[in-house]
Design goal:
about 210 residues, mainly alpha, Endonuclease Iii, domain 2, Endonuclease III, domain 1, 13 helices, about 0% strand, globular
Length: about 210
């Protein structure tokens, strides 16, 4: 399978937003409120996956605070995490499960250069093989670090809530239902995610993703 479209810069996001607005009127309404969507590109590598693990099941504010302590302690490389004691990892705010996941990631030996050349599903499959990396974390990495234009993260609670409000759904859609709904937004599901996160910020007055 081919890699597919990569989001490199703001012009790619704008192209995807225009496509979404033409194909789904509710996105046009959302984009009128959000304005231009953020690029949200991040570097590749170990520290980005570790950051995603830190963000699991905590608020964006808590995740940012914990990650700042991780960075300050220099625990952003596989070698540093492997050397760190349990007390070191606890001191920066990692829970016991996240300590275990951080160590598993440090020991996984992921070839980050090779990920660039894998299909979206192969990227996700490679990453979820590591304990502590679920589909949400893998999809976030594929979207933000690899720039995959057609990757979506339907397990994300902010995306679910934004979709509920924007599409006037009777309840917050579960992961499977949102994945099915997002099928109509291909080949720009990664931009649809950016639009929904931006809309969440407008609707809820808080960030839904770090």
């Amino acid at each position: 399978m081919s890699v597919g479209r990569i989001i490199h810069g703001p012009e790619d996001v704008a192209e995807g937003a225009d496509w979404l607005a033409r194909h789904e009127p509710r996105f046009a309404l959302a984009l009128d409120q959000t304005g231009a969507l953020p690029l949200r590109r991040k570097p590749e590598g170990f520290d980005q996956l570790l950051s995603a693990i830190v963000s699991q099941q905590v608020s964006t504010a808590s995740a940012a605070a914990i990650w700042a302590r991780v960075v300050a302690a220099g625990l952003t490389t596989p070698e540093a995490v492997a050397r760190a004691s349990e007390d070191d990892l606890r001191a920066v705010g990692l829970s016991r499960p996240k300590m275990r996941y951080a160590r598993a990631l440090a020991e996984a030996g992921i070839d980050f250069d090779a990920l660039r050349h894998q299909s979206d599903e192969d990227v996700v499959a490679t990453l979820v093989a590591v304990p502590g990396i679920g589909r949400w974390t893998a999809e976030i990495y594929a979207m933000f670090s690899l720039g995959r234009a057609d990757v979506f993260a339907p397990g994300d609670l902010a995306l679910q809530e934004a979709a509920r409000v924007l599409f006037e759904l009777p309840e917050r859609p579960r992961e499977g239902a949102l994945r099915e709904l997002a099928g109509a937004w291909s080949p720009w599901r990664g931009v649809a995610a950016r639009a929904l996160w931006a809309y969440y910020r407008v609707a809820k007055n808080r960030e839904g993703v770090r």
